[in-house]
Amino acid sequence: MSDTNKITALYCRLSHEDELAGESNSISNQKDILQKYADEHGFYNTAFYIDDGYTGVDFERPAFKRMIDDVDNGRIGTIITKDLSRLGRNHLHVGLYTEEYFPRRNVRYIAINNNIDSDNPDSSAVDMAAFYNIFNEFHVKD
């Protein structure tokens, strides 16, 4: 599959605990943010992968697993999330995906609110990703 035909995965996740944070973390709001970002930055052939009601600590989420299957099968070129915590709240697993798994499969990863884009490794936000991930995991434990 050529890079121009690859899917831009727009991944949304919301756990029951996150619902307490209010509308800003709702699935519909995440979808709006992700689609707007994709449209404004020239990402086409988008597909939503949505895990509604699943904790970020567990990576056995149905849509996440389907997205990873699509990565493994070479269908996805870019993954975009609202922020790193939407990908997950386990700092080791998130780091494994963002620093090892996605790069090895030539998948670009973007976390909009954290200003992280794997195509811009010189960004200071990329250096902060490990700290964001630790704080995101701490949020669950708190």
Report strand order across the widest sheet: 2-1-3-4-5
Per DSSP, the total helix count is: 5
Task: Tell me the β content.
Answer: 15-25%
Mean pLDDT: 82
Count of β-strands: 5
Q: Identify low-pLDDT runs.
A: 128-142
- SSE succession: EHEHEHHEEH
SSE-based structural type: alpha/beta
| Alpha-carbon Rg, integer | 14 Å
Descriptive account of the structure:
The protein is of the alpha/beta class. Helices cover 43% and strands 19% of the residues. It is built from five helices and five strands, in the order E-H-E-H-E-H-H-E-E-H. The chain has helices at 27-40, 62-72, 84-87, 91-104, 124-141, and strands at 7-14, 46-52, 76-81, 108-111, 116-117. The chain has a five-stranded mixed sheet, with helices on both faces. Helix 4 (91-104) runs antiparallel to helix 5 (124-141).
Annotation keywords:
19% strand; disordered C terminus; five-stranded mixed beta sheet; single chain; alpha/beta; 5 helices; 142 residues
Q: Secondary-structure map with pairings?
A:
Elements (H helix, E strand, L loop, with lengths): L6 E8 L12 H14 L5 E7 L9 H11 L3 E6 L2 H4 L3 H14 L3 E4 L4 E2 L6 H18 L1
Helix pairs in contact: 4-5
Summarize the structure.
The chain has 142 residues and is of the alpha/beta class. It has 5 helices and 5 strands, in the order βαβαβααββα.
